[in-house]
């Protein structure tokens, strides 16, 4: 069993990761973290190293997949490849007008996902 989560170094990404860790632990599942590909020197690289250290502390079996291109596509691909039982994504708060329009990436994930998607907000 697998839980797949997207990781971005922002409040939404951190909330998604925390929720995904809790879901993986509750389901005794492996966690697959899909992160954008960034050079190791970039701030995102340091953030990803911190994430890996935290995952080791939580005792969750995990794998990190880097997405050189479209993060939404990589997330769905990882879910298909691992036969995931759940995808976790983070959403940001939106204005009343913005609530009428879901982000393009989130919409593609919801429509293309091979399993349930849990959307969390920070």
TrEMBL record:
The record's section on CDD domains has: USP-like (cd00293)
Q: Name one Pfam family in it.
A: Usp
Q: Residues in domain UspA?
A: 3-121
Q: Which InterPro entries match?
A: Rossmann-like_a/b/a_fold, Universal_stress_UspA, UspA
Q: Which domain of life is it from?
A: Bacteria
- Family of the protein in this entry: Belongs to the universal stress protein A family.
What name is this protein filed under? Universal stress protein
Q: Which source organism?
A: Xylanimonas allomyrinae
From the broadest rank down, the organism's phylogenetic lineage runs: Bacteria, Bacillati, Actinomycetota, Actinomycetes, Micrococcales
């Amino acid at each position: 069993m697998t839980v797949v989560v997207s990781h971005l170094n922002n409040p939404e990404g951190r909330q998604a990761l925390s929720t995904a860790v809790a879901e993986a632990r509750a389901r005794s599942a492996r966690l697959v973290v899909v992160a954008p590909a960034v050079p190791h020197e970039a701030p995102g690289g340091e953030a990803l190293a911190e994430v890996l250290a935290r995952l080791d502390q939580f005792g969750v079996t995990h794998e990190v997949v880097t997405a050189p291109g479209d993060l939404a596509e990589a997330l769905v691909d990882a879910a298909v490849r691992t036969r995931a039982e759940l995808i976790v994504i983070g959403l940001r708060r939106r204005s009343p007008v913005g609530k009428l329009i879901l982000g393009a990436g989130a919409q593609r994930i919801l429509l293309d996902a091979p399993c349930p998607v849990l959307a969390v907000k920070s």
